[in-house]
Protein backbone atom coordinates (compact mmCIF):
# COMPACT_ATOMS: atom_id res chain seq x y z
CA UNK A 1 0.00 0.00 0.00
CA UNK A 2 1.34 3.43 -0.92
CA UNK A 3 2.13 6.05 1.70
CA UNK A 4 -0.38 8.81 2.09
CA UNK A 5 0.96 12.31 1.61
CA UNK A 6 0.49 14.72 4.48
CA UNK A 7 -0.36 17.59 2.14
CA UNK A 8 -3.94 18.27 1.25
CA UNK A 9 -4.87 17.35 -2.31
CA UNK A 10 -4.66 20.32 -4.64
CA UNK A 11 -2.76 22.46 -2.13
CA UNK A 12 0.35 22.72 -4.34
CA UNK A 13 2.76 25.38 -3.14
CA UNK A 14 2.50 27.01 0.26
CA UNK A 15 3.28 30.45 -1.20
CA UNK A 16 0.28 32.77 -1.40
CA UNK A 17 1.84 35.91 -2.89
CA UNK A 18 5.27 37.29 -3.77
CA UNK A 19 6.45 40.89 -3.97
CA UNK A 20 8.76 40.72 -7.00
CA UNK A 21 8.99 44.50 -7.18
CA UNK A 22 10.76 44.62 -3.79
CA UNK A 23 13.84 42.75 -5.06
CA UNK A 24 14.09 45.20 -7.94
CA UNK A 25 13.67 48.34 -5.82
CA UNK A 26 15.72 47.40 -2.70
CA UNK A 27 18.86 45.67 -1.45
CA UNK A 28 17.53 43.09 1.03
CA UNK A 29 19.89 42.87 4.05
CA UNK A 30 18.00 40.56 6.44
CA UNK A 31 14.76 38.59 6.37
CA UNK A 32 12.28 38.05 9.20
CA UNK A 33 9.17 35.92 9.56
CA UNK A 34 6.09 37.50 11.12
CA UNK A 35 2.59 36.31 11.81
CA UNK A 36 -0.41 38.41 10.78
CA UNK A 37 -3.58 39.19 12.66
CA UNK A 38 -6.37 38.41 10.18
CA UNK A 39 -10.15 38.22 10.15
CA UNK A 40 -12.04 35.15 8.93
CA UNK A 41 -13.02 36.53 5.54
CA UNK A 42 -9.38 37.50 4.90
CA UNK A 43 -8.19 33.93 5.49
CA UNK A 44 -10.80 32.62 3.04
CA UNK A 45 -9.68 35.16 0.45
CA UNK A 46 -6.03 34.19 1.00
CA UNK A 47 -6.91 30.55 0.35
CA UNK A 48 -8.26 31.67 -3.02
CA UNK A 49 -5.08 33.73 -3.66
CA UNK A 50 -6.83 37.12 -3.74
CA UNK A 51 -4.04 39.26 -2.31
CA UNK A 52 -1.68 41.88 -3.69
CA UNK A 53 1.57 42.82 -1.88
CA UNK A 54 3.05 45.10 -4.55
CA UNK A 55 2.38 48.53 -3.03
CA UNK A 56 2.46 47.52 0.62
CA UNK A 57 5.01 48.29 3.32
CA UNK A 58 5.63 47.67 7.02
CA UNK A 59 5.23 50.57 9.42
CA UNK A 60 6.54 50.67 13.02
CA UNK A 61 4.58 52.69 15.58
CA UNK A 62 4.10 52.51 19.34
CA UNK A 63 6.46 49.52 19.57
CA UNK A 64 4.33 47.46 17.14
CA UNK A 65 4.61 46.55 13.47
CA UNK A 66 1.75 46.99 11.02
CA UNK A 67 1.26 45.99 7.39
CA UNK A 68 -0.15 48.85 5.33
CA UNK A 69 -1.32 48.95 1.73
CA UNK A 70 -1.97 45.25 1.22
CA UNK A 71 -5.08 44.60 -0.81
CA UNK A 72 -7.02 41.45 0.13
CA UNK A 73 -10.04 41.26 -2.15
CA UNK A 74 -13.11 39.85 -0.37
CA UNK A 75 -14.95 36.88 -1.82
CA UNK A 76 -18.44 37.37 -3.20
CA UNK A 77 -19.70 34.74 -0.78
CA UNK A 78 -18.45 36.66 2.28
CA UNK A 79 -20.75 36.95 5.25
CA UNK A 80 -23.65 39.39 4.99
CA UNK A 81 -23.21 40.90 8.46
CA UNK A 82 -19.54 41.86 7.98
CA UNK A 83 -18.42 44.75 5.81
CA UNK A 84 -14.94 43.80 4.59
CA UNK A 85 -12.21 46.45 4.31
CA UNK A 86 -9.74 45.27 1.64
CA UNK A 87 -7.03 47.85 2.46
CA UNK A 88 -7.17 47.87 6.26
CA UNK A 89 -4.04 48.03 8.43
CA UNK A 90 -3.08 44.58 9.72
CA UNK A 91 -1.03 44.01 12.88
CA UNK A 92 2.15 41.94 12.54
CA UNK A 93 3.21 39.54 15.26
CA UNK A 94 6.94 39.62 16.05
CA UNK A 95 9.05 38.89 19.12
CA UNK A 96 9.98 41.91 21.26
CA UNK A 97 13.71 41.49 20.57
CA UNK A 98 13.07 41.45 16.82
CA UNK A 99 10.87 44.52 17.09
CA UNK A 100 13.48 46.42 19.11
CA UNK A 101 16.19 45.55 16.59
CA UNK A 102 14.01 46.58 13.65
CA UNK A 103 13.00 49.86 15.29
CA UNK A 104 16.68 50.69 15.87
CA UNK A 105 17.68 49.86 12.30
CA UNK A 106 14.82 51.81 10.74
CA UNK A 107 15.17 54.89 12.97
CA UNK A 108 18.95 55.21 13.17
CA UNK A 109 20.34 53.62 10.03
CA UNK A 110 17.67 54.54 7.49
CA UNK A 111 16.51 51.06 6.54
CA UNK A 112 13.04 50.26 5.22
CA UNK A 113 10.83 47.27 6.02
CA UNK A 114 9.34 45.66 2.93
CA UNK A 115 7.00 42.66 2.71
CA UNK A 116 8.57 40.02 0.45
CA UNK A 117 6.26 37.00 0.53
CA UNK A 118 3.05 35.74 2.07
CA UNK A 119 2.84 31.99 2.70
CA UNK A 120 1.28 29.18 4.77
CA UNK A 121 3.29 27.54 7.53
CA UNK A 122 1.69 24.82 9.66
CA UNK A 123 -1.78 26.12 8.84
CA UNK A 124 -0.99 29.73 9.73
CA UNK A 125 -0.33 32.70 7.46
CA UNK A 126 3.19 34.09 7.69
CA UNK A 127 4.73 37.18 6.14
CA UNK A 128 8.38 37.39 5.17
CA UNK A 129 9.70 40.89 5.89
CA UNK A 130 12.91 42.23 4.41
CA UNK A 131 15.13 44.83 6.09
CA UNK A 132 16.12 46.79 3.01
CA UNK A 133 18.01 49.78 1.62
CA UNK A 134 16.70 51.56 -1.47
CA UNK A 135 18.50 51.13 -4.78
CA UNK A 136 19.60 54.03 -6.94
CA UNK A 137 18.88 54.00 -10.68
CA UNK A 138 22.43 52.93 -11.58
CA UNK A 139 22.19 50.02 -9.12
CA UNK A 140 19.00 48.82 -10.81
CA UNK A 141 20.67 49.01 -14.21
CA UNK A 142 23.67 47.03 -12.99
CA UNK A 143 21.46 44.35 -11.47
CA UNK A 144 19.56 44.04 -14.74
CA UNK A 145 22.83 43.89 -16.72
CA UNK A 146 24.17 41.10 -14.46
CA UNK A 147 20.92 39.16 -14.77
CA UNK A 148 21.04 39.42 -18.59
CA UNK A 149 24.69 38.30 -18.64
CA UNK A 150 23.92 35.28 -16.43
CA UNK A 151 21.07 34.33 -18.75
CA UNK A 152 23.37 34.63 -21.81
CA UNK A 153 26.05 32.52 -20.10
CA UNK A 154 23.51 29.77 -19.46
CA UNK A 155 22.43 29.84 -23.13
CA UNK A 156 26.05 29.63 -24.33
CA UNK A 157 26.86 26.73 -21.98
CA UNK A 158 23.68 24.89 -22.97
CA UNK A 159 24.47 25.29 -26.69
CA UNK A 160 27.88 23.61 -26.31
UniProtKB/TrEMBL annotation:
Matches recorded under SUPFAM superfamilies: Small protein B (SmpB)
Localization annotation: Cytoplasm
Key words, A-Z: Cytoplasm, RNA-binding
Segments of this protein annotated with the region Disordered: 140-160
Family annotation (InterPro entries): SmpB, SsrA-bd_prot, SsrA-bd_prot_CS
GO BP of this protein: trans-translation; trans-translation-dependent protein tagging
GO CC term, one of those recorded: cytosol
Pfam families assigned to the protein according to its UniProt record, in alphabetical order: SmpB
GO molecular function annotation: RNA binding
Keyword RNA-binding tagged: yes
Transmembrane segments: none
Domain of life: Bacteria
Chief location of this protein within or outside the cell: cytoplasm
HAMAP family the record matches: SmpB
Family indicated by similarity: Belongs to the SmpB family.
NCBIfam families: PRK05422.1 (NF003843), smpB (TIGR00086)
Task performed by this protein: Required for rescue of stalled ribosomes mediated by trans-translation. Binds to transfer-messenger RNA (tmRNA), required for stable association of tmRNA with ribosomes. tmRNA and SmpB together mimic tRNA shape, replacing the anticodon stem-loop with SmpB. tmRNA is encoded by the ssrA gene; the 2 termini fold to resemble tRNA(Ala) and it encodes a 'tag peptide', a short internal open reading frame. During trans-translation Ala-aminoacylated tmRNA acts like a tRNA, entering the A-site of stalled ribosomes, displacing the stalled mRNA.
Protein name: SsrA-binding protein
Source organism: Sedimenticola thiotaurini
